[in-house]
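Hi support team,

I'm filing this because I wasn't sure whether my run with pyridoxal-5'-phosphate finished correctly. The job status page said complete, but I'd like someone to confirm that the output block is well-formed before I use it downstream. Pasting the exact inputs I used:
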Amino acid sequence: MQTVTGYFQVAAGKSSFIRKMFEKGLELKAQYGEDAVCDFSLGNPDVPPPLKARAVLHEIADNAVRPLGLGYCPNAGIPEVRQAIAGHLSAQQGMAIDAGNVVMTVGAAGALVCFFRSVIEPGDEVIVPSPYFVEYGNYCGHFGGVLKPVATNADFSLDLGNIERALTPKTRAIIVNSPNNPTGTIYTEAQMAALAALVDKVNATRERPLFILSDEPYRAFAYDGSKVPAVLKLSKFAVVLGSFSKTLSMAGERIGYIALNPALSRLDGGTLASTLILVNRTLGFVNAPVIGQRLAAAICNETVDLAVYKRRRDLMAQVLTDAGIEFIMPKGAFYFFPKAPGGDDARFVDLLLEERILAVPGSGFGRAGYFRLSCSVDEAIIARSAPGFARAAQKALVHG
Ligand code: PLP
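And here is everything the job wrote out:
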């Protein structure tokens, strides 16, 4: 058995790229001042929440003094909040979802951990198209799950052949994250339908089902008229996870959810739903924060000003183009995943650091040779970074 210290070292090692950049950023900001550093390393949303949040928080404050105003709530979430989120998801996913199939969680991260605790046996495998959000490995690893990254196509679209070849009798879930962190890719309706058909075909021959785990914290961030397909209705074995961290800029308030296809609950008599609620309690989450639940329920049909993110994306695209850096224009989320000039991502990120620009090497997302930029910063910072990107790219190419 792994010691506690051993586990910590493994988990810390896996996220060391982002940690390194985070620490480096703090150091540089302390040395040169906040304004001298262009920090594209973290995905912490900075656009203000919708205006209505203020009035809702006042109302919550008025009610907070009542008995149980801030008390424990049912492990699955406040009933009227589950109801509101079920209504929101019914419209979004194009199918009727009742509150019994929605569990409020501590962010999408808490939702992922609850899901893995509920379905993973040690040695089970979880497929993820790569590049990918590296925490997935830690989340399923807690319960002995093994993450199996599977390369996407050159344009970061799903390679269904690769996914099918990676399937084994131990595969328990396929994660899809669309719009994607780190690439900004949105998988098409046709690709998602083909994936669902593959999962249904596999499930016809097995006892323990294979799930599609659709991780959707960036669902609202879609540009140029792109549509993010609804996944839940595509298969009984589709599970949608999401949160309001990014869409409402309330990442610190930790509100997410898991939604199950009602057809699955009819099939298993509600076993997965009740297991998720139980593990939400026993993992120590107990219940998602009540202030955040009430806030999210009141404004779940709104979003932050997405036009701000669109302008940032367009400006960053211009900066990279002017610097001669190759990238695929992201259709969603707020990240770029360009090719590292010269091919060595760690080296290029170091060259950017010399320009006081913070980025994360693609190796930290399972794809060397690229780097990730998060546009959760003001347009002025993106504009200011332009000469630094150009100089770093030149140096990378000159010195190979
Ligand atoms: N999934 C992806 C792809 C993410 O990028 C993040 C956060 O950055 C999460 C899940 C976790 O989000 P939350 O704040 O809702 O826990």
